[in-house]
Amino acid sequence: MDAFLIEGGRKLEGVVKISGSKNASLPILAATILTEDDVYLENVPDLSDVKTMLKLLSNISKEISYEDGKLLIKQGGEVQTVAPYDLVKTMRASVLVLGALIGKYHSARVSFPGGCAIGARPIDQHLKGFEAMGVKIDIEEGYIVANVDKLRGARVVFDLPTVGGTENVMMAAVLAEGETIIENAAMEPEITDLASFLNSLGAKIEGAGTPLIRIQGVKKLHGGSYRVIPDRIEAATYFIAGAMSGGEVIVDDLIPEHIDAVLKKVAEAGIDFKVEEKRVVVYGGKRPKPVQVKTRPYPGFPTDVQAQIMSMLTLARGTSVIVETIFENRFMHVNELNRMGARIKVEDRTAVVEGVEKLKGAPVMASDLRASASLVLAGLVAEGVTKISRIYHLDRGYERMEYKLNALGAHVERIKE
Ligand code: UD1
Questions:
Q1: Residues enclosing ligand 1, CB less than 6 A?
Q2: Where are the alpha helices (DSSP H) in 158-305?
Q3: Which CATH class is domain 2-19+230-416?
Q4: Whole-angstrom distance, CA of residue 343 vs CA of residue 314
Q5: What residues does CATH 3.65.10.10 cover in the chain?
Q6: Can the peptide bond before residue 299 be classed as cis, meaning omega within 30 degrees of 0?
C-alpha cells in the first residue's frame, strides 16, 4: 500500500489548477446510460472512483475511450443491467447507476451499498422515490432488484435533502411518462451540473439548484458533448492549505461562488484572500482566529470540508467549535490530528478544538477521503516528518495531489509500505 511522507514547514507559493469535479462526474457518467448515442465528456478527473464508475459502465454495455483529451462513451453490445458487489463495495456512489438503469431499461440489479466509514448512510429515500414512480423494489441476496412495466412521473417529497437521492430520482424521471416533482431536493452544484448535462441531451428539467425540481419526461435522449464543473471540495482543500502555510497561493480554475461558505468562514478566521472571476488568491501564514463551524446542506458549510477546516483550526488563537450535522461518525481524523499535537475533544457530533501553537510530525493513518486530506494539511505545516498510511483514500478524490502540492513548494513523497 502507498503512503505519503511529508516534510512539514515549507512555504507554499504559486498556482494550483483545480480538476473537474468528482461528485459531478460520477452521476453524469451514470446518466450516460440514459442515451444510446455517443457522449463526449471534458474535465472528468483521473481518479480511482471515476475508474470504478467506468468499470460499472463497461459492465453494463458502454465502450469507453479517449479522444483529444475527452472521454468518449459509446453504446456497446449486449446490455446487462447489473452493478456487482465487487465494484459497489469499493464505492458507495455506484448506487447512482440505479436511477439511470430504471429510467432506460425499467429493470436493475444493483448491490446494496451497505455501511461505510462515515456512518450508516442509508438509501431509503432513493428507494422511496423510485417506488412513488411505480417501481417494485425487492432486496435479494444483498442486491436491490428493481422492476417496472410503466415508469410514470410522480411527486417525490424527501424527508431530508439527499444529494444522491435527488440525482437518482432525477435520472429515473427523465424518460418517465409525465411529470416528476421533487420536493425538498438537495441544491448542491453537482445536482445543477447533472441537470444541465441531461438538458443538453434533450431532457426537460427545471429548478435544479432549488428545493423544487420539475422534470417533464421525454421519449429519448440524444448524444452530446459536455464539460464538467470544477471540483469545489478540491478547491476548498487547496485554499485552506494556502491559508495554513506561509506564502501566496493562487487557486485557479474554480467557481468561487461554489465555495462561498468556506470563504466566509476563513475570512471570519481573519485570513486574507481575494476573490477573482475564476480564482482565489490566499495570503497565508497568519494564525487564525477561532470560529464556530456547523456543516449544512448546500449552500451551507460542506461536510466534505469539515476535516480540512478542523486542521486549520488546530492552530487557532483560541477554542473553536465544529458541529457535524450531516453524517454521524465523521470525526475519524480527530485522533490522528491529536497524535500530531492538536487538542481536540469530541462529544457526540461536536468537536471542541483548542488551538495550539504548532503541530508535530507523526505517523498517522488515513481513514476516509476527506479525513485523509486534513492529515495532509496538518502534515504540510507540522514540524518534522509526517507519514500518512493508506492514502488510497486520497487517490479516490484528489487528482495528482502530491504533484500539485510539490509544484507549490511542498515536499510530499509517495512511498510503498
Ligand atoms: C454526497 C457526496 C458526499 C457528501 C454528501 C453530503 C457524492 C458522490 N457524494 O453523498 O461527498 O459528503 O453528498 O454533501 O456526491 N440519507 C438518508 N437516506 C437516504 C439518503 C441519505 O437518511 O436515502 C442521509 C445520509 O445518511 C446523510 C444525509 O442524508 O446523513 C445526506 O446524505 P446524501 O446527501 O445522500 O449524501 P451522498 O449522496 O451519499
A1: 23, 26, 93, 121-126, 160, 162-165, 186, 190, 303-304, 326-327
A2: 163-173, 189-200, 232-244, 260-268
A3: alpha beta
A4: 7
A5: 2-19+230-416, 22-227
A6: yes
Output helix, strand, coil percentages for the chain, rounded to the nearest 5: 35, 30, 35
Contact 339, 355 (CB under 8 A): no
Distance CA 210, CA 196 (A): 14
Class of domain 22-227: alpha beta
pLDDT surpasses 90 at 204: yes
Q: How confident is the model at residue 186 (pLDDT cuts 50, 70, 90)?
A: very high
Q: What is the pLDDT of residues 289-300, one digit of tens each?
A: 999 999 999 999
116 carries an active-site annotation: yes
More confident residue, 330 or 114: 330
Residue in 401, 405, 396 with CA at minimum distance from that of residue 23 = 396
Pocket test of ligand 1: the residue of 97, 121, 127, 233 to mutate, having most ligand atoms within 8 Å of its CB, is 121
Query: What are the distances in angstroms from CA 358 to CA 245, 338, 355?
Result: 12, 12, 9
Q: For 262-325, what is the HEC assignment?
A: HHHHHHHCCCEEEECCCEEEEECCCCCCCCEEEECCCCCECHHHHHHHHHHHCCCCCEEEEECC
pLDDT at 118 over 70: no
What single letter denotes the amino acid at residue 220?
A: K
Q: Give the cell for residue 78.
A: 449486449
Average the pLDDT over 119-138 and give the result.
91
Task: Choose which residue among 163, 308, 328 to substitute to test ligand 1 binding: the one with the highest number of ligand atoms within 8 A of its C-beta.
Answer: 163
**List of long-range contacts for 354-357, beta carbons under 8 Å, 24+ apart:** 354/319, 355/287, 355/288, 355/290, 355/313, 355/314, 355/315, 355/316, 355/317, 355/318, 355/319, 355/320, 356/314, 356/315, 357/315
